[in-house]
Amino acid sequence: MIRQAVFEGRFYPATRKEIFDQLNSIEQQHRYDETIDGGGRIIGAVLPHAGHVYSGYQTIPFFQHLRAQGIRPETFIILHPNHTGAGAEVALDSHDAWQNAAGTVPIDTELSVALPYPADRSAHANEHSAEVIVPYIQYFYQDREVKILPLCIRKQTSLVAGKLARDLHAAVRASGKVVLVIASSDFSHFLSPETGNQQDQLVLDQVESRDIDAVEQAVIRNRISVCGYGPVMTLMAYAGMEDRNYVSKVIARGHSGEVFPSREVVDYISILFQTKE
């Protein structure tokens, strides 16, 4: 069974040529420094999930870095939030592959069956936060097959994040696969650029300090509209199992008002996670 794209023609174009032309156009604008200094092995990244015309500028630098480093994972694990409220607290997908105008990307069923979570199609059916990441993978890995493993997280707590990270880490270790973990999340929604920047920094400071519980508390106590803080916490926990001294680094930071000027914007931040050495 194949999941057909739901947000094609809305969050990203509706033909392969248009998808790749748009990403190429964004890439050629070189908005951010493409040289990322130092660090050890790449574990994954926090990436935004808005329409490509808005957040492609912040997403592309991560994939450019992978290309520059010659990193070719077998599977991208895509941890993403549940905007619809449908389905299980943590949900795998029961399809064998996801398809859009750019092609078909297989699900890593070997990893999927090794995880103790239900394959709940309803959680993914009308959810955009993983689907919009897939065209970037197709664009940057046109010459080879790369699998995905989408995991939709409805219950965003540090306890759920810790358990999911442990389960993922054990499954990946047992498989011997080369994987990268993407945490799909936008940051503050519909605030002024200045207020959003201040709100986001409260979360980013805790991400940098590797304090998962403090991320959750910062979001809740300050009512910060980081929609994928559950995926972010899960990536943090997973990274800590790879290297307790892992390093996170903001590699791109912007907002929707840089594309279409507005007093109220949505913030997009990409954060690279690496081992220290």
CATH topology annotation: Protocatechuate 4,5-dioxygenase, Chain B
Q: What is the spatial order of strands in the main beta sheet? A: 4-7-3-8-2-10-9
CATH class equals Alpha Beta
Overall, the morphology is globular
Catalogue the unreliable spans: none
Percent of residues in helices comes to: 25-40%
* Full CATH superfamily name: LigB-like
Structural class: alpha/beta
Supply the CATH architecture.
Answer: 3-Layer(aba) Sandwich
- Give the N-terminus to C-terminus distance in angstroms: 41 Å
Describe the structure.
By secondary structure, this protein is α/β, with parallel strands linked by helices. It has one domain: LigB-like (Protocatechuate 4,5-dioxygenase, Chain B), CATH 3.40.830. It is 38% helix and 20% strand. It is built from nine helices and ten strands. It has helices at 16-28, 52-69, 109-113, 121-125, 134-140, 158-175, 193-208, 212-221, 229-242; strands at residues 2-4, 42-47, 75-81, 90-91, 97-100, 103-106, 147-153, 179-184, 247-255, 267-274. The model has no long low-confidence stretch (mean pLDDT 96).
